[in-house]
Amino acid sequence: MSSPVIIVGAGLAGLCCARQLHRRGVPFRLIDSSDRVGGRIRTDLVDGFRLDRGFQVFLSSYPEAREVLDYNDLNLRPFLPGALVRFGGRFHTLADPWRRPIAAVGSVFSPIGSLRDKLRVGRIRSQAVRGDLASLVANRETTTLQALQTAGFSPAMIDRFFKPFLGGIFLDADLQTSSRLFFYLFRMFAQGDACLPTKGMESIPQQIADELPASSLQLNCKVTRIQPDAVSLADGQQMAARAVVVATDAPHAADLLGESIPRQGQGVTCLYFAAQRSPISQPILVLNGESGPINNLCVPTTVSPSYGPKDQSLISVTVLGASHEEPQLQQQVRDQLQDWFGPDVQSWRHLRNYVIPYALPRQVPPALAEFERPVRWKPGIYLCGDHRDQGSIQGAMVSGRRAAEAILQDGS
């Protein structure tokens, strides 16, 4: 029997690579140093709450996800399109006028940008949904901040809405991320919903893993060396391979393959609290349009009650960056939350912090000059992950499929 393709890394990219090979009848072995699949998409059960490791949402309009995943099985629960923006000591609603026209009427008079700014959002939306994706991402690449300034948005609109909203997506407070990713994700938000799966974000990679033969998966298995025809493990074992796919994040790929793979990433800190009642009544994202450590807040149990025990609320707070002093940060966050929601915040029970130094690849221009970067590393060695495409669930899934297709084309 011939040696299998060995896939190193059981995150979304590795799983999608394995899925494609399995469907084509190619033997493979999927190995990961962790105790379960998912990579950076993980969900922990803590005191009856589902805690995603870092606040994440799933965009139902991702084209690759529509092909791969069973949405009914995931039982996706959508956020309301729009946001509550904290500014001037109050919360202001910004609603999507295409999907929430009545709520959007009040948005016109909010101080989160001018009326012209809100009309410009419509023009940006039209630009993002017009034509095919290939044409959209072929537009001239600048930073997202430059693209917003060129579109004529006021500094107030950029500071109060776009920086906390897009900053929370890119984990980039200065909006230096490629404008190509901005337009791509703006299109995804316009064409679908931001959702949470009922059983947490980890149910997305787990659904793909459930399609694969259980015997093909090997966990708690650390790879130390890569060759075109073998991988070496930390326990001294060597596994023969027909070909090898490195499906890890960029820093681990660089450790295995070489420094020419960019290691730079975006970090984030997520704090979770339990409360007797939700501070907001709707399943909507809260953005900080003022100063202070909080970038955004949501209550996952208002989106999907399965995220927590009955009659309790789960509060997720995102702070950009991963180098904070944790005790001081937690107090600063509580102080800001109390300013927003009053003394009830003092009774909120802290559940857990997640400090994630590498949550997304850093994608400043010209990072996306080529939207799909090569997955062939050298003969017999392939590479996939969101750093090969764009930093999103879509990018990771597409890169895994592309790596499998390259193996099939090469006859590896």
Overview of the molecule:
With 412 residues, the protein is α+β, with helices and mostly antiparallel strands. 33% of the residues lie in helices and 24% in strands. The chain contains 14 helices and 21 strands. It has a seven-stranded mixed sheet with strand order 8-7-16-17-18-15-19, with helices on both faces. It has a six-stranded mixed sheet with strand order 10-2-1-14-21-20, covered by helices on one side. It has a three-stranded antiparallel sheet with strand order 5-9-6. α1 links the parallel β1 and β2. The model has no long low-confidence stretch (mean pLDDT 93).
Low-confidence stretches: none
Mean of pLDDT: 93
Radius of gyration: 22 Å
Strand order of the largest sheet: 8-7-16-17-18-15-19
Distance between the termini: 15 Å
The total strand number stands at: 21
Task: Determine the number of helices (DSSP H or I, runs of at least 4 residues).
Answer: 14
Helix content: 25-40%
Strand content: 15-25%
Mind describing the biggest β-sheet?
7 strands, mixed
Specify the overall morphology. globular
Structural category is alpha+beta
